[in-house]
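Lab notebook, bench 4. Still working through the backlog of constructs that have no structural model yet. Next entry is a single chain of 154 residues. Request: give me the structure tokens for it.
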Amino acid sequence: MTQHEIFMKKALQQAKLAQKHDEVPIGAVIVKDGKVIARAYNKRNQTRNAVAHAEILAIQKACKKIGDWRLSDCDLYVTLEPCLMCIGACYNARLANVYFGAYDLNGGGATTVVNDERNNTLNHNINMTGGILQSQCSQILKDYFLSKRKKETK
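Model written out:
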């Protein structure tokens, strides 16, 4: 198992916690020097807060942990391709790398907008890699939404 897979499994553990709390199962961890310094999962329903995405919550925790808003020596692992808001937060936090599991063709910001070759006006670059444990990250989302649809039809 690669280092990326190990950290994505930790993000998947967070996604499972989200699912347990009836949240969309997306989890995130932030890694610095090979150690997890922050972990979070979606809490939008729990907090009734539109910006309580796993990535945002993990960034907040990591900033608090290291005592700085700059996370330039840190990597984010998240189970779903980040949305535009979360990608913006990654840029503002100066994350070095963003690794994600499942691609989000409808709402993802990493591959649709940010990696557009014409968009080189940002003052910081983030290396982005998708598809890490993609099938597992996709499956937890599929299972969650399938169970939601089954409940709605009863």
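Notes after review: Residues 119 and 127 are 14 Å apart (CA to CA). The chain has a mean pLDDT of 91. Flag for follow-up if needed.
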